[in-house]
Structures are given as structure tokens and as C-alpha cells.
Automatic annotation (TrEMBL):
SUPFAM superfamilies in alphabetical order: Actin-like ATPase domain
Species this chain originates from: Actinoplanes friuliensis DSM 7358
Domain Ppx/GppA phosphatase N-terminal: 16-295
Protein name: Putative exopolyphosphatase
InterPro entries, A to Z: ATPase_NBD (IPR043129), GppA/Ppx_hydrolase (IPR050273), Ppx_GppA_N (IPR003695)
Record-linked Pfam families: Ppx-GppA (PF02541)
GO molecular function, one term: pyrophosphatase activity
Amino acid sequence: MRVAAIDCGTNSIRLLIADVGDGRLSEVSRRMEIVRLGEGVDRTGRLAPEAIERTRKALLGYAMEIAELGVDRVRMCATSASRDAANAADFTDMVRATLGVDPEVITGDEEARLSFAGAVHGLEAEAPYLVVDIGGGSTEFVVGSTEVKHAISMDIGCVRMTERHLHSDPPTPAEVAAAEADITRAVDTALRTVSGHGTATLVGLAGSVTTVAALALHLPGYDATRIHHARVPYDEVAKVTFDLLGATVADRLDLPVMHPGRADVIGAGALILRIIMERAGKTSVVASEHDILDGIAFSLV
């Protein structure tokens, strides 16, 4: 069966078209665009009209590819930004008109379970796992082995933390300290709730983690095959985080692995990852290119 999975988060909208059968997924197309749907949501509580329009344009391209590739089933999940917004109905109406299906504004718990399903499929590492999906508006913490045992979603993400705390370019020490305190409180709550300290392997998902991994690996360009299942030591994560927080957005844009739409928020994303590793007592993180998109695809069969 050919399926299309769409994940619309706070920062990006992503598409996976795949043939799924016998518990296996064969990728046909995987795309990502930065649309910053959640721009300003933490402050205003509403989706900005220009953010909805950016998302519509990206979604229109996805809809055309879905039609061209003969997809049997489509599922679009919308996460943190549309959960938080008072005008989420405007977003839903736009998606229905553009894609022909309604977006599912999923709960943080469902987001965590889909991310876990995508991340652990084919993973060869010691269980149980602590899977962390660092998004734009929220971070999901999931513990399990073959299935989810505990899960929680916390309102810390690279866009939300940047907009809330990291206003200077580069951020000042006081801004970084405020972000650290905010993130640490949320991480400690999450780890207590999901029993994250007793896990064997930390698995990190989404663009903040994979970009940090690419920088730690000193790649000449973004290479998903090199990043997928790479194990990155804590010392490397800490160094990359320090360098990113000390750099201007222009400096970050010069890095060969950096997506232009991620440059202004990657410092906060790296900081979230570093603090999770510290508070969970993890000496390394396994980066995964497989995440909620793969979980959505599997859910369609």
C-alpha cells in the first residue's frame, strides 16, 4: 500500500510517501520545508495569517506530489502549534481546502507514541529506550522497549524557547541562563514522569538533533545516511551547543549542514538536547532520521 504521511509542527512541515507492507517501509519521497507555523503562538495564542499562508503554499506542493504518485491513503498530523492556537479552525479549513483531508490535531501523548514507533523500528541498540523528539514548540519524552511504557509532552521546543528567551544575536549569557532554567525545570518533570533515568539508550529525533549530530560529525554537507543511527558523545553535543549559542545567525548560516530556516532557532534546540543528556545522565545520544513521519506511515496500514 502506498501511503502519504504529513507532519505539520511548529517550525516545519514534512512529507513522507512510502510503500508499506509486511512491517517494512520503502521510502518513495521525503520532503521538508520550514514554514514556522507557530511563529508568535507562545506570545499571542494565535496562528498568524502569514504563517498559515506559508504552510498553505508548502502543502499545495505536497498535494500535487501525492496526486502524481498515486497514493492510497493520506494522514496529516498537526502538533504543538495548532494544539495551542485559539484560531486552529482557520488552519483546519485551509488544510481541508488544499489537501482534501482534515488535519488531525493530535495530543502530545499520541505525538509521542507515533514518534517512538518510527524511531525504534530497525534500531539496533540496547533497550529500554528514552526517545526524545525535540520540535519547534514542544519536546516529547517516551520510554519503552518494543512498545511505549511512559510518555509525556512538554512545552519546550526550539522556536518556543528562542522566542521566549534568546532575543539577542548572539544570545547574551543572561538569556541563555534563563532558557537553561526554563528547560531544566521541564526536563526534570518529564524524566520523573516517564522514569527516564533508568533507560539504557537515549535516542534523539527531529531537525535540532540531526543538525547537532551533523555538526559533531564534521560533515561537509547534510547527509542523512551518515547521521541516521550515529552515536554522538555528550562532550561533542556540549561543544556544538556552546559554539552555536556563541554564534550569530549569519555565522550559523555559513555552516554547510545548516538549513536556512533552522539557523535562528538551532541554539535553543541544541541547548534542550544538552540539558536532557545532563539531567538524564546520558553519555551519548543516538540520532535518528526516522521519527513521527515513519510512525504516521505505519499507522495507515
